[in-house]
C-alpha cells in the first residue's frame, strides 16, 4: 500500500483567488461578527502591504486601502475539498477526506496505469497548479504517516518501513498530530522528536498518557490500521461563482465561465463521465435567475469545447438586469464514450469532427437548426418527410417521379402560366387523422422551362397549386 | 514586356495551347454527366474549391446536376450538408436519385448565419459536399467560401441566380443551367479555357 497525502496550505485563499481575473492583486479573507471583522488569511501581495492574519479589519484599513476582501466561509472550504476529491477520484478509488484541508488517497494500485510515482507526482502537481491550488505532496506507506510527514515535507516519497522510521524519527513532537495537551507535556519532559518518544517503554507511556497517544504512534508506523471513510463522487455538478460587481456585458462573464467549464471538465474526468445537458444560471439581485440551457447531442467533456458551446449560448442572451453571480448545474452525466478516430485520416489534420461541428452550429443557430431528413410512409407529400436529429435510411418505394424540392406552402399558379405534361395522378389519403386530402397531381412546365409538380383538389375548378419543383 | 510570367499562370489562363499526348488522369470528383466531364479541364468538379451554379429559376434540373455526385459521396460515407435550402428536400426523390439520406444534414439559418454556417462546414473538413444558396453574396463572401473549401478540402456548391453571371466571382468553376433550350454553359473554369459551346443537359428524361 502506498498512500498519497496532498495538503492544501491555503485552500480558502486559493479558492477565492482562482475566481478572480487578477490573482496577483491583494486579497484578504475576513471572518467574525459585523462589529469585529478579523482577517483570516492574506495572499502575498496583501502581506507586503503589512496585513497579517488575526488583525482586525479597522487596523488593516488603517495600513492600506488597496486590498480587496472576501468572506472566509467554512462551507466554501468544505465544498472545494469535495471538488478536489472529485478531481483525485480519477487517480484512485480510495480517496478520503478524513483530515481537514487535505486529500489522502491510495495510489499503489493505480501506478500500473499512471506510470511510476515521480511521473504521477509531476502530473498531480501540474494539474493542481492549473486548477490554481497550492499544495504539498507526500507519499508514505500509510495514510496517517503521509499526513504527518506532509506537515514538514513537500515532495517526500517514503517507500518502505525502514525509511518511514527514519523520516518519522526526525519529526518534532509538536508536528506529530498529537492533541495539543499531550504535545506540550511531552516537550516539557524534554522529548523533542519522534525517535526519542519511540525509545520510551510502552508501559510508562501508557501510564502517563491516555490510550489515544499509543494508538496514534502505532498508526503512524502502520502497526495499527486507520479506518477511513472513502469519498463517493456525487451524481450532479453544481458550482457557483459570485461576482463582486455588477456585470453588464457578456465579456466580463467569460472568465468565470471558463473557470466553471474547466472545473466541470475536471469533475467529469474524475467520474469518467460526460455531460449532455447543463444549465447556466445568471443570478440577478432582485429578479429571478436567467436560465441558459446548454444541450449537446452526445456526451462530451473537452474543456475548450464546453466553454465554446456555453459561450455561444451566452452571447445571444439578453438579461433584464446586471448579473451578480454565475452558477453551473449539470444533472445528467452519462457515460463518456470516446470518439472513434481513424489512425490514418484522409482529411487534413486540423479537421473538426462532424459531432463537434454540429454542436458548434447548434450553439449559434439554435437547437432545431441542424437536422437530418427522414422519410415518413405517407402518400401526402407534406407528411412524407420529418426533420430528425439523425437521418435514417428509408425504403425505396417504386412509383412515379417525385420532385426534388417540396414547397412548404402550395403556391397558386396563374391560369395559362404552365402547361400540363403529364397527369393526373390521384393522391387520396389521410381520412383517418383529419388531414383528409383528395388531389389530382400534374407534372407541369412553365413558360420559362421550369418543371413543377402541381395539384388541384378533386372536384374543384380553381387554379393549379404548385407544390414542388423537379429541380 | 520583360515581366517574368510564371508558366503556370499562362497555362491556367488557357493562353498557351498544350499538346496532350496522353489523356488526362480521371478526376477524383467526376460529375456523373459524361458530356460535362469531357468539357471540364480536370474531368470533373474542381477539387477542394467552390463551384458556382447559376440558374434562371427553380426547377430547371439544378439538383439533378448534382445528384450523381452526392450519391457517390454519400455512398462513400461522406457527409452532405445543405445550408439554408430554399425548399424542403423531398426524401423520396433524393433517395431514388441514390443519395443516402443518413448522410444528409440540413441546416436552417438566416441570410448572414447561413454564410457563417457554410464556411464552418467547409472549414471543418468533416463534410464531403456543402451546398448553399447565398442570396446577396458579394465577392468577399464568395472568396471566403472558396478559401474555406480549400482549407477543409471539401466540395462547395453555391446556387445563385443567372443574373449574377455578369459579376466577377472567385469560384473555380461557374456553370449556368439554362432551361430553354436545356443546356449547360461553362462560364469560367480554372485550369483551362472555358468550353464555349453549350452542353446538352436534359433533366428528368
Protein model, in words:
The complex is a heterodimer of chains A (471) and B (205). With 471 residues, chain A is an alpha+beta fold. Chain A has 15 helices and 18 strands. Chain A has helices at 11-17, 44-48, 57-63, 74-88, 111-114, 117-131, 143-150, 161-169, 180-188, 194-199, 202-208, 211-220, 254-271, 303-314, 354-365, and strands at residues 3-7, 27-31, 38-42, 68-71, 95-96, 102-106, 136-140, 237-247, 275-283, 290-300, 323-332, 370-375, 385-388, 405-412, 418-429, 437-446, 451-457, 465-469. Chain A has a 5-stranded antiparallel β-sheet with strand order 14-18-17-16-15, with no helix packed on it. Chain A has a 4-stranded antiparallel β-sheet with strand order 5-6-1-7, with helices on both faces. A 4-stranded antiparallel β-sheet of chain A has the order 8-11-9-10, covered by helices on one side. Chain B has one domain: Rossmann fold (3-Layer(aba) Sandwich), CATH 3.40.50.300. Chain B is α/β, with parallel strands linked by helices and 205 residues long. The mean pLDDT of chain B is 84. Chain B starts with 6 loop residues before the first helix and ends in a 5-residue tail after the last strand. Classes of the chains: A alpha+beta (471), B alpha/beta (205). At the A-B interface, α15, β12 and β14 of A face α3, β3, α4, β4 and α5 of B.
Key terms for this structure?
heterodimer, A: about 475 residues, alpha+beta, Alpha-Beta Plaits, Dna Ligase, domain 1, five-stranded antiparallel beta sheet, four-stranded antiparallel beta sheet, 15 helices, B: about 200 residues, alpha/beta, Rossmann fold, eight-stranded mixed beta sheet, 6 helices
Amino acid at each position: 500500500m502506498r498512500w498519497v497525502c496532498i495538503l492544501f496550505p491555503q485552500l480558502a485563499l486559493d479558492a477565492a483567488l482562482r475566481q478572480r481575473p487578477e490573482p496577483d492583486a491583494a486579497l484578504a479573507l475576513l471572518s467574525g461578527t459585523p462589529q469585529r471583522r478579523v482577517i483570516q488569511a492574506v495572499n502575498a501581495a496583501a502581506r507586503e502591504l503589512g496585513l497579517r492574519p488575526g488583525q482586525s479589519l479597522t487596523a488593516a484599513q488603517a495600513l492600506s486601502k488597496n486590498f480587496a476582501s472576501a468572506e472566509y466561509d467554512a462551507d466554501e472550504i468544505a465544498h472545494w475539498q469535495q471538488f478536489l476529491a472529485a478531481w483525485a477520484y480519477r487517480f484512485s478509488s480510495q480517496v478520503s477526506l478524513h483530515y481537514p484541508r487535505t486529500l489522502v488517497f491510495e495510489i499503489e494500485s493505480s501506478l500500473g496505469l499512471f506510470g511510476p510515482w515521480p511521473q504521477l507526482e509531476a502530473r498531480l502537481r501540474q494539474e493542481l497548479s492549473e486548477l490554481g491550488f497550492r499544495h504539498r505532496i507526500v507519499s508514505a506507506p500509510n495514510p496517517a504517516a503521509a499526513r504527518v510527514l506532509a506537515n514538514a515535507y513537500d515532495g517526500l516519497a517514503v517507500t518502505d518501513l525502514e525509511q518511514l522510521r527514519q523520516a518519522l524519527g526526525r519529526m518534532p513532537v509538536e508536528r506529530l498530530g498529537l492533541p495539543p495537551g499531550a504535545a506540550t507535556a511531552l516537550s516539557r519532559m524534554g522529548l523533542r522528536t519522534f525517535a526519542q518518544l519511540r525509545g520510551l517503554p510502552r508501559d510508562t507511556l501508557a501510564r502517563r498518557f491516555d490510550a489515544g497517544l499509543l494508538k496514534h504512534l502505532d498508526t503512524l508506523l502502520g502497526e495499527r490500521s486507520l479506518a477511513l471513510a472513502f469519498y463517493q463522487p456525487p451524481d450532479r455538478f453544481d458550482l457557483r461563482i459570485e461576482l463582486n460587481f455588477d456585470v453588464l456585458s457578456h465579456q466580463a462573464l467569460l472568465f468565470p465561465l471558463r473557470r466553471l467549464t474547466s472545473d466541470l471538465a475536471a469533475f467529469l474526468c474524475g467520474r469518467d463521465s460526460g455531460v449532455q445537458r447543463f444549465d447556466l444560471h445568471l443570478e440577478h439581485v432582485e429578479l429571478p435567475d436567467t436560465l441558459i440551457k446548454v444541450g449537446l447531442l452526445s456526451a462530451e467533456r473537452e474543456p475548450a469545447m464546453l466553454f465554446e458551446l456555453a459561450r455561444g449560448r451566452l452571447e445571444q442572451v439578453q438579461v433584464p438586469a446586471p448579473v451578480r453571480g454565475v452558477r453551473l448545474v449539470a444533472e445528467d452525466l452519462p457515460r463518456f464514450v470516446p470518439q472513434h478516430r481513424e489512425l490514418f485520416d484522409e482529411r487534413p489534420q486540423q479537421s473538426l469532427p462532424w459531432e463537434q461541428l454540429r454542436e458548434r452550429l447548434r450553439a449559434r443557430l439554435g437547437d432545431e437548426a441542424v437536422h437530418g431528413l427522414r422519410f415518413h410512409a405517407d402518400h401526402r407529400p407534406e407528411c412524407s418527410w420529418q426533420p430528425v436529429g439523425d437521418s435514417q435510411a428509408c425504403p425505396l418505394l417504386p412509383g412515379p417521379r417525385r420532385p426534388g424540392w417540396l414547397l412548404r406552402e402550395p403556391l397558386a399558379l396563374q391560369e395559362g402560366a404552365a402547361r400540363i405534361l403529364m397527369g393526373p395522378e390521384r393522391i387520396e389519403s389521410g381520412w383517418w387523422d383529419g388531414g383528409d386530402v383528395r388531389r389530382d397531381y400534374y407534372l407541369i412546365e412553365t413558360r420559362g422551362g421550369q418543371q413543377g409538380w402541381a395539384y388541384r383538389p378533386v372536384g374543384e375548378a380553381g387554379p393549379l397549386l404548385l407544390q414542388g419543383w423537379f429541380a | 514586356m520583360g515581366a517574368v510570367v510564371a508558366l503556370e499562370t499562362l497555362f491556367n489562363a488557357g493562353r498557351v495551347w498544350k499538346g496532350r499526348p496522353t489523356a488526362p488522369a480521371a478526376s477524383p470528383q467526376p460529375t456523373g454527366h459524361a458530356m460535362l466531364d469531357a468539357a471540364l479541364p480536370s474531368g470533373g468538379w474542381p477539387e477542394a474549391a467552390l463551384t458556382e451554379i447559376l440558374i434562371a429559376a427553380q426547377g430547371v434540373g439544378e439538383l439533378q446536376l448534382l445528384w450523381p455526385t452526392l450519391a457517390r459521396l454519400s455512398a462513400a460515407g461522406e457527409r452532405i450538408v445543405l445550408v439554408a435550402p430554399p425548399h424542403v428536400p423531398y426524401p423520396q426523390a433524393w433517395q431514388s436519385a441514390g443519395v443516402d439520406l443518413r448522410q444528409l444534414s440540413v441546416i436552417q439559418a438566416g441570410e448572414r448565419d447561413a454564410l457563417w454556417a457554410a464556411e464552418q462546414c467547409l472549414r471543418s473538413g468533416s463534410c464531403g459536399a456543402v451546398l448553399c444558396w447565398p442570396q446577396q453574396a458579394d465577392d468577399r463572401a464568395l472568396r471566403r467560401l472558396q478559401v474555406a473549401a480549400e482549407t477543409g478540402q471539401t466540395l462547395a456548391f453555391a446556387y445563385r441566380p443567372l443574373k449574377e453571371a455578369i459579376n466577377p466571382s472567385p469560384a473555380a468553376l461557374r456553370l449556368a443551367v439554362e432551361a430553354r433550350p436545356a443546356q449547360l454553359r461553362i462560364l469560367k473554369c480554372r485550369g483551362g479555357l472555358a468550353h464555349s459551346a453549350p452542353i446538352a443537359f436534359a433533366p428528368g428524361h
